[in-house]
Amino acid sequence: MIAALLLISQRLIANLGFAVLTGQGAVEAAGRDYFFGRIWGAPATLSNYVLLGWLLGRERAREALIITVIGNLANVGLDYLFIMRLGMAAAGAGVATALSQYLMLATAVTLILREGRPLPFVFQSVFERARLGQLFRLNRDILVRTVMLMTTFAVFTNFSAIIGTAILAANTILFRLQMVASYLIDGAAFATESLAGIYKGRQDVIGLRSLLRLAMLTGLGFALPLLMLMFGVPSWLYGLMTSHTDIAGLAWRYSWWMIPVVLFGTVAFIYDGFFIGLTEGKVLRNQMLISTLVFYLPLASFGLWRRDNDILWAAMALFMVGRCLTMWLGERRVLAAMERAT
Questions:
Q1: Burial class of residue 280, CB neighbours in 10 A (0-12, 13-18, 19+)
Q2: Which of 185, 278, 295, 333 is least surrounded, with the fewest CB atoms within 10 Å of its CB?
Q3: Left (φ > 0), alpha (ψ -120 to 50) or beta: where does 242 sit?
Q4: Number of CB atoms found within 10 A of residue 12's CB
Q5: What pLDDT digit, counting tens, does each position of 61-104 carry?
Q6: Residue-by-residue DSSP string for 157-202
Q7: What is the rounded distance in angstroms from the CA atom of residue 110 to the CA atom of residue 217?
Q8: What is the distance between the alpha carbons of residues 131 and 124, in angstroms, rounded to a whole number?
Q9: pTM reported for the whole predicted model
Q10: Among candidates 221, 216, 223, 307, which has minimal Cα distance to 258?
């Protein structure tokens, strides 16, 4: 239903979105081309969120991995076809991502149906008021958290574009590397979601603390090699991202900001999985509001006013620090309450 609304109102969404975001004409045109290619994947994308969440909640990470790998490999192959071979540029990238989402959906449905015949649909069991209300309250809090996170990233991209096209290109390279780090850490975060829910059901506070420590170490174990790669072979790594040596050099100029952003971001993403597993949506909502509105936006706005990319990256680093600090405080409060209850 949500995907249908997105498709029906896609032009309104595009006009509102690009009215908020400011960039040079060519950049905005490419963004619109990508959006109108990508939006048709909304039904598959939202369905994949549901199915992957269901699989991970049942500790079926193997199937989730298969689905994700197939989707990402298809995305890479379709990107090459539409962009390099057919010359569709940004529109091709959007269409490639949309089609890869439908392939992921087909894979997910196939794997789930292999388990056996699904249970019949019973209206009363699905639309039970109390449980549905709990679900929507949790979804509301996570939605606020996600919207604020995406707003932070969108503002960062928008401010980069205003400062200059070269800065936008360099920051996009670094931001993509940050996303690679988050994808590596997602495995530990997803596992933390499933296991945190199990430990909460058992009221095992000691197990939750041990789980969190192990997850943090695992996440940092994925993040540190990426940082070593970034600073060990920068020419090779940035060469994969761009053929423009001046842009690669500019990205290297600001690459040291990736150390605090990736390390604190790792801790924050693990905390995300921990609190989702505990169904503590309010903690996720409140920490993101504080981190975005208090830690990030004032400094980022100052960086835009000064046209200073270092300040812009400092705001992103401070945003990650704020997330870690607020969720650490939330962890202490939530676990202390569980201890008192037991």
A1: buried
A2: 333
A3: beta
A4: 9
A5: 788 889 988 999 999 999 999 999 899 999 999 999 999 999 99
A6: HHHHHHH-HHHHHHHHHHHHHHHHHHHHHHHHHHHHHHHHHHHHHH
A7: 35
A8: 11
A9: 0.78
A10: 223
